[in-house]
């Protein structure tokens, strides 16, 4: 069944096994370093409003913390990126966990040498899913290009070289991305000698592998706290910061997880940082990842992820906000 990206979808779909597709040929993309920002202003999430549970303390393939997550909004699966057990941070080895929307684990895919996993996208591709994710990790374990990887259940894939992947911004040295399935755009966070910048592209640039000038390109504003994820909805970027509970991970106070919204037309903070108490009673509770999804009833949701549980048995917990202003 064919769907148009961004159309509202129901909360669950049939469970499907991972497709055994081969790795598509990769090429080099070229894009502009700067661009005028002229994205039509949209509603934004009110970050002061309550959060609600999607699920808590769900098991993943490995025992280490999740890094980020992404929705395949057509086939209705959730993909959670976790660190590989027994692998050093600098290796860039990831485990991608395929789950249903109740948090039930289905299958895994190991990606060796890809990157840190701060953010990625899961684009529907027929009955399968194409992961747009950083690749060619540098010596610090961060990806230096972006690659479209067909999800293949229970397999291991080595990273393509950066020269065989996509680098849409000239001079950028590190890349991650996240998708807005409602407004059909991809947001890219990239690193330059001058620091972190943000670029926004039409999603079609990624699906066609043909990169033009970004719709917006701006210096990331200074936001305090440990960066833990970002995403895009309409004309606003959302940025997650914070740390796990200190010590042994026992819940203490409200924690320090904050969400901030940024106007992509001006590159300035619109709201926040706003403290979120979602899952405040969970053990460890390290903020890890943001993503957007829209339900069949047309409700847009901003999802916030946390790595929870005890050391050696970390779990995935995901919440959402749904109030727009």
Automatic annotation (TrEMBL):
Domain of life: Bacteria
P68 RBP/TagC-like beta-propeller domain ranges (all copies): 65-319
The keyword rRNA processing is assigned to this record: no
Keyword tags: Signal
Signal peptide interval: 1-37
Cited PROSITE patterns: TAT (PS51318)
Protein name: Teichoic acid biosynthesis protein C
Organism: Streptomyces bambusae
Organismal lineage: Bacteria, Bacillati, Actinomycetota, Actinomycetes, Kitasatosporales
């Amino acid at each position: 069944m064919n769907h148009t990206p961004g159309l509202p979808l129901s909360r669950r779909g049939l469970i499907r096994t991972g497709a055994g597709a081969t790795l598509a040929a990769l090429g080099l993309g070229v894009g502009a370093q700067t661009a005028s920002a002229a994205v039509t202003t949209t509603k934004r999430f009110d970050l002061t409003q309550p959060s609600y549970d999607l699920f808590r303390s769900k098991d993943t393939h490995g025992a280490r913390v999740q890094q980020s997550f992404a929705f395949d909004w057509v086939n209705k699966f959730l993909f959670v990126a976790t660190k590989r057990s027994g692998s050093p941070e600098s290796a860039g080895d990831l485990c991608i966990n395929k789950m249903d929307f109740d948090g039930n684990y289905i299958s895994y895919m190991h990606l060796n040498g890809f990157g840190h996993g701060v953010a990625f996208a899961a684009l529907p591709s027929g009955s399968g899913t194409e992961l747009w994710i950083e690749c060619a990790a540098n010596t610090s374990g961060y990806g230096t290009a972006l690659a479209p990887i067909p999800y293949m259940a229970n397999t291991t894939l080595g990273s393509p070289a950066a020269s065989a992947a996509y680098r849409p911004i000239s001079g950028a040295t590190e890349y991650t991305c996240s998708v807005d399935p409602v407004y059909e755009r991809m947001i890219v966070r990239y690193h330059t000698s001058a620091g972190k910048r943000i670029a926004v592209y039409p999603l079609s640039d990624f699906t066609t592998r043909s990169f033009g000038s970004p719709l917006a390109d701006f210096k990331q504003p200074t936001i305090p706290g440990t960066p833990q994820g970002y995403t895009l909805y309409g004309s606003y970027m959302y940025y997650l910061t914070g740390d796990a509970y200190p010590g042994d991970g026992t819940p203490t106070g409200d924690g320090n997880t904050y969400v901030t919204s940024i106007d992509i037309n001006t590159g300035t903070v619109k709201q926040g940082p706003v403290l979120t108490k979602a899952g405040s009673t969970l053990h460890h509770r390290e903020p890890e990842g943001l993503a957007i999804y829209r339900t069949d009833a047309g409700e847009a949701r901003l999802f916030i992820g946390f790595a929870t549980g005890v050391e050696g048995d970390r779990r995935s917990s995901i919440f959402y906000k749904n109030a727009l202003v």
